[in-house]
Fold this protein.
Amino acid sequence: MADRPRHPHKEIEAVVAQAESIGWRWRKMGHWGRLFCPHAGRDGCQVGVNGTPKNPEDHARQVMRAIARCPHGGEEDK
């Protein structure tokens, strides 16, 4: 987490930290950033993380759902 800024909303920061703990990578893009799944191919999943969402709790749930829907979980050996 040392290479990215903390998100200003605690709910979203918690989701981003959880995603990083399971292998997702954060990159500065747009207003705050984007998360990329551990699958490094062109068909890997990604989700945008807004820096100033209108409703932080809803945005955190949206990001969490996108991470949960990623079909590439557990593909370390494939």
